[in-house]
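Handoff note, outgoing to incoming analyst
You'll be picking up this chain. Sequence as last confirmed:
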Amino acid sequence: MTTDLVARFVKRFRGGPVVAADLAGGGVTALFGPSGCGKTTTLRCLAGLDRPDDGEIRLGGELWFDAARRVCLRPQQRGVGFLFQDYALFPHLTVGGNVAFGLAGLPRADRLRRAADALDRLGIGGLEGRYPHQVSGGQQQRVALARVLVCRPRLLLLDEPLVALDAPTRDALRPELRRLLASISVPVVLVTHDRAEAAALADQVVVLDHGAVVQRGTTADVFARPAGLTAARIVGVETVHPGRVLRAAEGLAVVAVGRAEVVAVAPVEGPRDVYACVRGEDVILLAGGDGHMVASARNQLSAVVTAVTPEGPLVRVGLDAGFLLTALVTRPAADELGLAVGTRVTALVKAQAVHLIPRPVNDPVS
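Most recent structure output, in case you need it:
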């Protein structure tokens, strides 16, 4: 029997926003978007904590909610595991007691065995006797996840699962959490507004804005090829600049962008007015600004550095390449190039890294 989730429903708030969810499939799905876009409301409706106004929710062959037929299973009937942002661990219970809390109907020996197995699976076996305040933030996250998984949920919901952790701990836990989510045989829906987290954990992404779905697809496709200007801004494409297609031939388009011309993969029946989108990690910088390097990239743009901003292990580099262009490079690369405001460089961008999306003719930025 399939365990795919199908959820198409509407939740209205009096005098407020309307959240329209549209989810389908298995694996790990990330609900991605800014605060207030409806991500957590969608989770709460899936869990049965909030009741939608229209639509239906199914898991496999079981109907959980149907507004037309007045079907709405209670949370305890759905078998959902819900990991909250703050983990909601009971401070008066030990780690073992927290994990076994949802197994009250089982004999004590079975509760202890399943709790120990869950902790071992998450790499924190031996902490059963400690209290939540006696373990680290990363260990608390694992305890909370073990408490959810020990009940063998049919659907796993994660609300910003790593948001309570510091950056180094988040970076360390992402691959571990991804391996765990890939190993369980239930659909997972997670909420995040962190692009790195969505890219690391999810198979598919649903982008939300003001309660509406603006794009869905594989993680790689959504982040590399946003469907429109709203999606591009939400997923954090570093360079989004208005342009105009000058000519197209053999699958490539020459696009006027600011004072420069760039080559992009031409859409099949693309409009002449477009936005040119480039991810920062797709821009390669070379020393010198003559723009005529020996390289395979179609676009070799002479540029001047306008800003250098360290961001953890990376450096965000603002460039004037005839239009405002942003590059993301490693700290060693930035040091090697001697990047500083006023430095002349050549920016290399492959044609397939320039994504074109339609732009209204009367767009105010044109």
